[in-house]
């Protein structure tokens, strides 16, 4: 049980680590167009991302697939940039609170596909922790649960901030979306430009 808890904590710490903020940026971009009253839509969207990264995290950690680490580290900020840019085309509902924004189906597909890429990024860290450990199924499962708790923590934080700004401080949803998505897009572009893949 102590091993399970340790890997769960490591998974949570990995995705919420400010030093490795690329995954945080993606989750922020993913839910930037929502507020707390759209939690169901956000949950479905995040679940699509979860399915994707859980699959490749397992396959890569079990060494059933191989890939270029440098390429994955480049593709992760690319997924962030694409997600943030897609937010610019989101049409904000006229109503502040009651009207639910229509969810483009393509956004679910992108979340799933981009999750596949992020899962391979997660596996790099997990494999470095596992070393030559023989049984990795339990640590893999615990690590993935930790990732999910961390992901939910980030989502709740973003949605709560959005709720306070939009519903209490009366900031326009359009402005919130442009500011948060623009900031994320700029940071993602910086990660791409400075990626060692181009060195």
From TrEMBL:
Keywords: Membrane, Transmembrane, Transmembrane helix. The chain crosses the membrane at residues 20-36, 43-65, 71-90, 110-129, 149-169, 176-193. The keyword DNA-binding does not apply. Pfam families: HupE_UreJ_2. The keyword Membrane applies. InterPro entries: Put_HupE_UreJ. This is HupE/UreJ family protein. It comes from Larkinella punicea. The lineage of its organism: Bacteria, Pseudomonadati, Bacteroidota, Cytophagia, Cytophagales.
């Amino acid at each position: 049980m102590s091993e399970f808890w340790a890997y769960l904590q490591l998974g949570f710490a990995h995705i919420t680590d400010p030093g490795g903020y690329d995954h945080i940026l993606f989750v922020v971009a993913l839910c930037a167009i929502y507020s707390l009253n759209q939690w169901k839509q956000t949950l479905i969207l995040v679940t699509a991302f979860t399915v994707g990264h859980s699959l490749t995290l397992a396959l890569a950690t079990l060494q059933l697939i191989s890939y270029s680490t440098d390429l994955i580290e480049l593709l992760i900020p690319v997924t962030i940039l694409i997600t943030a840019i897609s937010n610019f085309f989101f049409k904000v509902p006229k109503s502040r609170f009651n009207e639910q924004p229509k969810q483009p189906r393509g956004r679910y597909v992108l979340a799933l596909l981009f999750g596949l890429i992020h899962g391979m990024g997660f596996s790099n860290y997990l494999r470095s922790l596992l070393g030559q450990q023989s049984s990795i199924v339990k640590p893999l499962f615990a690590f993935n649960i930790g990732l999910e708790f961390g992901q939910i923590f980030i989502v709740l934080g973003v949605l709560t901030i959005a709720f306070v700004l939009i519903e209490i401080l009366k900031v326009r949803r359009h402005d919130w979306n442009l500011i948060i998505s623009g900031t994320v897009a700029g940071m993602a572009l910086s990660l791409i430009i400075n990626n060692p893949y181009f060195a």
